[in-house]
Structures are given as C-alpha cells and as structure tokens.
Prior knowledge:
Undecaprenyl pyrophosphate synthetase, 6-stranded parallel beta sheet, 254 residues
Amino acid sequence: MKITTAWKLALKKEPRTTGEFDKLPEHVAIIMDGNGRWARKHKLSVSRGHRQGTETLREIIRHTDDLGIKALSLYAFSTENWKRSEEEVAALMQLILDFFASEIDELDEKNVRILILGDKSALPEKQRETLKEAERRTGKNTGLRLNIAINYGGRAELVKAAQEIAILVKNGTLRPEEITENTISDHLYTQGQPDVDLLIRTSGEQRLSNFLLYQNAYAEFVFPEVLWPDFTVHDYDLALDAFAHRERRFGKRL
Length: 254
C-alpha cells in the first residue's frame, strides 16, 4: 500500500513543527472534557482526574506556543460547575492556585499573555487575586494569548456585552443604528482577538456547553473520543491537521 504524506503525518508521534501543516488556525478553543471519567476508569478520585488533566494542559499550551498559534482559549470552570460536589469544586479551586504557582514564571518568560474569561468577583479571594496577578504580570506580553475561562458562561458574557452597550446608548455615546457586530465583539472578554477557528472537545461529547457562543460562529469542530488526561500532543496535531484540510466557506459557495 502506498504511504501518502497524510499517512506519514498520522503515524508521526513526535510533535510537529509549523511547516508540517498546510495551514494553522489563529485561534484554538478547547473544552477539556473527560477528567471525571478518566478518574473513574482508573478507580481514582475525581480530583486526581483534574490534576492529571493539568499535566496534559501544560503540554498543549507549550506546543501551541511553539507552533506560533495566536490565541488559545481553555474552558476550565463554567458558571454551572458550582453545582458539582463541594469536594470537586474545592479541588478545582486548589488547582487554580497550584497551576499558576508552578507555571507563571515559564509563561511570562515565553511572552505569553494571560487573560481570564469570566466573572472573577465570585471566586474565593485567594484565587481571585492569583488570577488578577497573572493578568497584571503578563499584561504587556505580545506572544500567545492564553485565555482561561473560569466562572465563565457564554450567555452571561453576551448579557454583559448587551448591558455595557445599553449604557452607551442611554448616555448618548452611541446611537442604536450604530451598533454593529464589531460593537458586540468589542464588549466581549476576547476583545481584539480573532474569532475561534478550531474548537476541540475531548471525550467524544459533541456540544458547546455554553462556551464562546459568539466567537464560535464559524469555527470548525473536532471531537476526539480520547479523554482529556490521555490527550497527547500527537492527538492535538491530528486535530490541527483535520482543520488544515477543511474547506471554510463562511456562508459562501466555493
């Protein structure tokens, strides 16, 4: 059987370089799903599943940066996740502290700019201050935009944008007929960033779960069945390669 270039790429296990892709997305979003199922599969606590998922996260961030992708958005904790058990929520809150304690130096050194998507005010004080400090410390960096969604909901983000725009109209700063798509984009957490080109959701689930509803308008979706803690750089490269071979029409006929 003839081994094509595509087959060679699929078989290659070491991380790929930028030149090995026909094209790369500017903005990748990832719903990191499957930590709990991974833990049950291995007869471990859910908190251990989330901690193992953090190990995957480190590798994916590094590889995204190495490839020169402009923005990476990660769904870490939704507004609905507060409904989970106290034990799981406490473990996730602790992971916020542990992740930034161990990673902030490297991220800053690599010129990564961190932006927290979501309402930080509802978080415990220690976590809130940790996130604010990460944003402050990396605020002038010009490399990868690392968006971490914590206490985030897509509908809540759109409500926030609508309220801010309504205030401008009420104050006479903006007329209703002047409201455009750019006006809305300028009031989202991701202001000034490109829309999502590629959305990856691990574990085989196929839904958005209230994540970046506006920004995902024309995103390409990839749903690998692998659970997030088992998601490797090779799996990521396969998703990026799938994107490279999609025809993106944006409503037009080709």
